[in-house]
Design brief:
heterodimer; A: six-stranded mixed β-sheet; four-stranded antiparallel β-sheet; B: mainly alpha; two-stranded antiparallel ribbon; 15 helices; 2 strands; disordered C terminus; binds adenosine-5'-triphosphate; binds magnesium ion
């Protein structure tokens, strides 16, 4: 049975249909890659799952529940974590504090009053920072991290959140080749423990980590299959026409 | 390592502050001066309360004087009913009601015969008002400057209502000629050291409560909200609840400060609910350091202290406002985290020297200072 299922999802931005009957089904434990030319609606697809964009039609089913009209925090609490395309961490807080905020076991105001910000779960959080190579920066403000480190911090935050489903929007954007390799390693480590839906442009990265690839075009699901199947699909070739082919996208 | 030094520095700072404000009455035998200092400490409570909502949660509440004013009226109502010469009318009516042809004590004045009720109401009433306003504002995801505008509008409205309802509130004059508060057999004469100690202890309690909040995970989430409100939602927190919480705690503390203020001033008036007070609190926090509770409180004491000193010195009679303005601009321009950041920097420097002597740990960086030290 699939963990996440989108059925004919519609999203409109003041008349413009960013998603036009988008279907997607992701099984538990799977690492799914989502690709498509610029403006295909990949980010919008993630937005609509985590509640950032409003559903104008269709259904989103997560773990058997229809979450189409849930508020963001409820969706998150059900077990969906999101990494944004523009890395989005709390720049004025330290790495440790960022991870602690993400480490959401109890969400209530009064429940959290009894938890010390400095002492609680410090060891666990430090291990997480170590996982993404941020141990040295553990007590530093996130604002001074490099671009790549910020991306990793955000991924570590999703792990801290312990979300069942991770939605990663271009986790390697702006990274050097070495950093991209490290990110691929990280994704492989998380594979299996978390179900992942990864939006990417970097085909090398996708080949490295992905099993099944879904291709989006103009707000729809265009094709789905392995890397080889996708690369030889004439529809996909047509969609990427003019954007330098699938490799250059 | 760094955390130990910082928090040790913190404790020393608090201890020094507590000692300083508690020994003051031993050296002052001018009741007028003591009363004035007590007032400054009350402003410290107000500033610490704003630091909670503005400095820690990013809610610039320009209507904080509503909480302050409502608290002061709650206290003033009970003190008014405890004055002897209120029986100018048939049913023991306050004098201003007699002048306004009110025949009997309005129902909402009745429970204020009880001091205990008034003390509870002085905190609870502002909290309920904040809860209602906060519910509408934060549920609707109003943010930033719009929150400030709405709270400011709220202040103006409440002020108008109080001025307008002269028959029940004393209108422009407010509630004057109040009795002293008598509690546990102590007479809190506004010029007594008993009153000063009550206020000093209240300020310390406020700072303690505030520290407990900001050092909890709830406080951490409040800071995350200040940084990036929408991001917090995707980790599963109901942001509005945290904002309402910070807003309400701040309102409760401000209400309490209002009660104390009515005591030391021996009156309550619509000037307590003025835009001017609201804006002053913002200035105190900005000067002291809005991201520090004790910094904000010190900012309030310092600014009002200098203000009081200058405005009463003949040499500065015409220029003190200018001097205050210049001080404010200078601090905001050169010390965006307020005067307290100088203290924090010094403390981190000390800690840094010790650490580098002990281990090869990273140089400690105080918040907001990106230069390497040590
Ligand atoms: N908030 C918005 N308001 C209006 N239009 C939007 C909004 N967000 C996205 N769009 C439009 O919807 C379409 C899909 O955008 P989306 O960001 O989902 O594309 P994408 O596949 O993530 O592209 P990229 O590869 O460039 O990140 C684009 O045409 C974009 O201009
Ligand atoms: Mg995108």
């Amino acid at each position: 049975m699939s963990l996440l299922e989108l059925k004919g999802v519609e999203v409109q931005f003041s008349g413009f249909r960013a998603l036009r009957g988008f279907d997607l089904s992701v099984a538990a434990g799977e690492l799914r890659c989502l690709i498509g030319p610029n403006g295909a609606g990949k980010t919008t697809a993630l937005d609509v799952i985590c509640g950032k964009a409003q559903v104008n039609g269709g259904d989103i089913i997560f773990a058997g529940q229809n979450i189409s009209h849930f508020e963001e925090h409820r969706i998150a609490r059900l077990g969906i974590g999101r990494k944004f395309q523009v890395p989005s961490v709390f720049r004025e807080l330290t790495v440790k504090e960022n991870l602690h905020v993400a480490f959401c076991r109890r969400a209530g105001v009064f429940a959290n009053l009894g938890i010390s910000a400095a002492k609680a779960n410090a060891d666990e959080l430090e291990k997480l920072a170590e996982l993404v190579g941020l141990k040295e920066s553990f007590r530093r403000e996130a604002g001074i991290l490099s671009h790549g480190q910020t991306q990793w911090l955000e991924i570590a935050m999703l792990v801290a959140q312990d979300a069942q489903l991770l939605l990663l929007d271009e986790p390697t954007a702006g990274m050097t080749a070495a950093e991209t390799r490290k990110t691929a390693e990280l994704c492989k480590q998380l594979k299996g423990r978390h179900t992942m839906l990864v939006v990417e442009h970097d085909m090398g990265f996708i080949k490295e980590i992905g099993d099944v690839i879904s291709v989006m075009h103009q707000g729809r699901l265009l094709a789905q299959g392995t890397v080889a199947e996708i690369e030889s699909d004439p529809e996909v070739r047509k969609a990427y026409l003019g954007s330098g082919g699938i490799r250059g996208a | 390592m760094r955390r130990i030094f910082i928090s040790r520095g913190h404790i020393i700072g608090y201890a020094a502050f507590a000692l300083a404000i508690l020994v003051v009455p031993l050296f002052i035998d001018d009741p007028y001066l003591l009363n004035k200092l007590a007032r400054y400490l009350i402003f410290g409570i107000l500033a610490a309360a704003l630091a909670l909502s503005w400095g820690y949660t990013g809610i610039l509440n320009l209507g904080q004087a509503v909480s302050f004013g409502l608290g002061s009226y709650c206290m003033a109502m009970t003190l008014k009913l405890h004055t002897i010469p209120i029986q100018t009318g048939a049913a023991g009516l306050p004098d201003f009601m007699v002048w306004n042809n009110v025949k009997s004590l309005p129902w909402f004045w009745e429970p204020f015969h009880s001091t205990a009720f008034a003390v509870v109401a002085g905190v609870a009433f502002p909290v309920v008002v904040a809860l209602l306003l906060g519910w509408f504002v934060f549920r609707a995801r109003v943010t930033g400057v719009y929150v400030s505008i709405i709270t400011l509008a709220m202040l103006v409205v409440v002020n108008l209502v109080i001025v307008d309802q002269q028959r029940f509130t004393g209108g422009f004059n407010g509630l004057t000629d109040l009795a002293d508060l008598k509690l546990f057999g102590i007479d809190f004469d506004p010029y007594s050291s008993a009153t000063y100690y009550l206020i000093a202890l209240s300020l310390l309690a406020t700072l303690m409560i505030g520290e407990l909040v900001v050092r909890s995970k709830t406080g951490l989430i409040m800071q995350a909200i200040r940084d990036d409100e929408t991001r917090v939602r995707y980790f599963g927190y109901d942001v509005a609840r945290y904002q309402i919480f910070a807003f309400c705690v701040s309102a409760g503390l401000s209400g309490f400060a209002g009660m104390l203020y009515a005591m030391v001033m021996a009156f309550a008036s619509p000037t307590f609910l003025s835009v001017q007070i609201s804006l002053s609190i913002v200035i105190w926090c900005a000067v002291g350091g809005r991201e520090s509770l004790i910094g904000s409180a010190l900012g309030a004491i310092l600014v009002t202290g200098i203000q009081g000193g200058l405005s009463e010195t003949p040499a500065f009679l015409n220029t003190w406002m200018l001097i205050m303005g210049a001080l404010f601009v200078a601090v905001v321009l050169f010390l965006p985290k307020g005067l307290i950041s100088i203290v924090q920097l010094g403390m981190a420097r000390l800690a840094g020297k010790k650490i580098s002597a002990l281990t090869e740990d990273e140089a400690p960086l105080p918040r907001g200072h990106k230069l390497g030290i040590g």
